[in-house]
Amino acid sequence: MKSAVGRGLLLTGLETTRVRAEMSDNLLHPLTVICAGSCFAFSGLFYKLYSDKRQEVQKLKEIPNFQPDHHLLRILSASSNKRLHYVAVEGLVQAVGEPISSQYVPRCHGVIQKITVHEHWKYWNSSLKTWVSKKVNKQQTTNTVPFSLIQPGSYISEVSVRVDSPLEARGDFLEQVHKRLRQAKEGLMDAVVGELSGEKPVALEEREELLRVGSSITAFGELVLEQDKVMRLQPPKDGRSYVLIPSDYKSFIQRHENCANMWKGLTALFGITGFTLIGGLIHGAINKDKK
């Protein structure tokens, strides 16, 4: 009698385990399909980003690339209207005349200087019952002097490309050379006034950015030759972007290619993951039918 009861309990336990396994499989299949579908969706998105980036890289490579040398001068002299509508010119920054000296860093000179002073304040938020930080733009000063691009590796160059209207150019080409945060000195009276008014100063932030003399940049724009044999790079008349890049042309292209390769790798990763999940699901279904 006890043996029969034991066998019954064993069979009941096995049946419960089988039911739970089937329930787990039934729940697992939709989850696997959803995960695989998500992988394929992300793979398609990453492929679109990869395709767009590859087209962008291809268009960048089609832009004529020059250095400010006699070869460029000959090409520009032979062109129609003494004009190249859109080119990339890679060179070193050289001031035309006296450069700008940094206000904070000794023996540091540039051709574009941007000094920004921000005030950090705290304001009492009655809804949140707390102090909220806020940055206020107090003052921003920009100074420029005329500058040219000369051929890398040449200390004295007879040929250069004058860069016009650099403040109209896009690109993060300024280098931060100084940053300082001065904490506000708060006395007892200031603290009382701040509590009553609901606002109080916290700190003063100073920042100086320069386009330094001797730095390497690549400029994209329209190149013209004037009557005095001076080459000038200026904003394009056809609406294309006027850009200054703080690097050489090769490094600039390489960064874009690395970005394209990243999207390509993510496309392959998510695609393979999706196919692996679907393959595992099909393999499990086949083995279940064989049983």
UniProtKB/TrEMBL annotation:
Keywords, ordered alphabetically: Ligase, Membrane, Metal-binding, Transferase, Transmembrane, Transmembrane helix, Ubl conjugation pathway, Zinc, Zinc-finger
Signal peptide: none
Reaction equation(s) it catalyzes: S-ubiquitinyl-[E2 ubiquitin-conjugating enzyme]-L-cysteine + [acceptor protein]-L-lysine = [E2 ubiquitin-conjugating enzyme]-L-cysteine + N(6)-ubiquitinyl-[acceptor protein]-L-lysine
Main localization of the protein described in the UniProt heading: membrane
Gene Ontology MF terms: ligase activity
Transmembrane segments: 31-50, 265-286
Pfam families: GIDE
Subcellular compartments: Membrane
Bilayer topology: Multi-pass membrane protein
Entry EC no(s): 2.3.2.27
Domain E3 Ubiquitin ligase MUL1-like per the UniProt entry, residue ranges: 125-276
InterPro entries from the UniProt entry: MDM2_MDM4_MUL1 (IPR051652), MUL1-like (IPR022170)
Record-linked PANTHER family: MITOCHONDRIAL UBIQUITIN LIGASE ACTIVATOR OF NFKB 1, RING-TYPE E3 UBIQUITIN TRANSFERASE
Official protein name in the record: RING-type E3 ubiquitin transferase
